[in-house]
Amino acid sequence: MMRFLAGPVGAVLVALAAVGAVAVAAHAQSPGTEIKPIVPDAWQGDAYRPKPDLAGLKKIRFITDSDYPPFHYYDEVGALTGFNIDLAQAICDVLAVECEITATNWSSLMPALETGEADAAIASIRITAEALKSADFTLRYYATPARFAARKDSDIAQISPETVEGLKIGVAKDSGHEAYLKTFFPGAAVAAFESSEAAQKALKEGAIDLVFADGITLAFWFNGVESANCCEFRGGPYLDSRFFGEGVGIAVKKGNRTLVQALNYALEQVHARGTYEELFLRYFPMNFF
Question: Are 105 and 65 in contact (CB under 8 A)?
Fold first, then answer.
């Protein structure tokens, strides 16, 4: 899940999605339709932001944490690696600056920016109103869709308010996913669990008909040992910032708009050059959109 500023996780991820100030409206695609990664609104078309003045920018000191694979983690030889690590390096390459990437505890990320020990935090930090009180953020560089999951032997094919009416759908208690279900699928029998993991276990055991949760979390669960290959996605992705958040961005010290502008430019260029897609496919071979 993506990390919240207040502490570790709430739904494991990765995702190609939207960078842009414009919120992505909720939508779903029918089964059988080709589902393509969603790219940031600001990255669509031929118009890219001009290169900012980079005079004086010689090095970016990125900070992350180290226990959130495949985003950032230590590999078998002890090297810090992952999607966020490679994206940070790609940003430095675009800007032609020296790149320093170090790991610290999750709770130390924002204090390190405030004290000047680091320039930017790239650690799957969700952009929230609370987070914006402590730091400035780039445009989002990924967001995670909500998805439905069913057992592979289930005959549920189409997902709509009508087709799931009366079905028991597991969801994490007091989550945006629960609120979304109650708003747009009022006929469903919502079963609130203490965690997404508990809902997934109930689906595996056949106690419920569907799970509605973070798409990345579900994708990793499908491919992991715990699922025993029981389940798969049904229906399409759902994106709605009112329920699922604005996505993930790179945090910098409050007021450092110059660095924000440089990073936004670099993120656009990383996408335009095809590097973002390459990294996305490398670390997330199973499309969760």
Answer: yes
